[in-house]
Write a structure and sequence with these properties.
Four Helix Bundle (Hemerythrin (Met), subunit A); globular
Length: 152
């Protein structure tokens, strides 16, 4: 049962973006997973990137539940650049399974966070609303798929 102390908008936004993700991946073919979505990344790479960041946040939340919140700065551009060679080796089927699994896990973790930790995380600028990251990349993927069907 979700913790009612976590703001409903996080839980709702995360659920809606996860449903959007599930709908999208259910329609992807092997060919479409190889399509370029953004910045030279294929759709499969983009999905694997999304899975990584949901898993990364999940691990942060688990640690913070054990040890208390600890602000950790990271260089997103450097992480993404370092991930690229690994993401290039992830096949489409693995990417789709990982992104769905990661989205489900992080959304459940956020829904069950205690309110004290959730407030501390948000006061320090850490988003519990995973939908922002998901929707950004889902928009890019949908645009790439639309461009493909329109022949552009």
């Amino acid at each position: 049962m979700p913790n009612t102390d976590v703001p409903d908008d996080y839980v709702t936004n995360n659920r809606k973006s996860r449903e959007r993700l599930l709908n999208l991946v259910s329609k992807l073919s092997d060919h479409s997973l190889k399509r370029i979505a953004n910045h030279g990344w294929t759709i499969a790479m983009t999905l694997a990137h999304m899975a990584f960041y949901d898993n990364y946040r999940l691990e942060q939340l688990r640690r913070w539940e054990q040890t208390g919140f600890n602000e950790v700065k990271h260089d997103t551009d450097a992480i993404n650049s370092g991930l690229r060679p690994l993401l290039e080796g992830v096949d489409g089927g693995t990417a789709t399974r990982c992104v769905v699994s990661a989205a489900q896990a992080i959304d459940q973790q956020i829904a069950n966070l205690n309110s004290e930790l959730a407030n501390e995380i948000e006061q320090n600028g850490r988003a519990l609303d995973r939908s922002r990251h998901r929707n950004e990349h889902l928009d890019e993927i949908e645009h790439a798929l639309t461009s493909e069907t329109q022949g552009t």
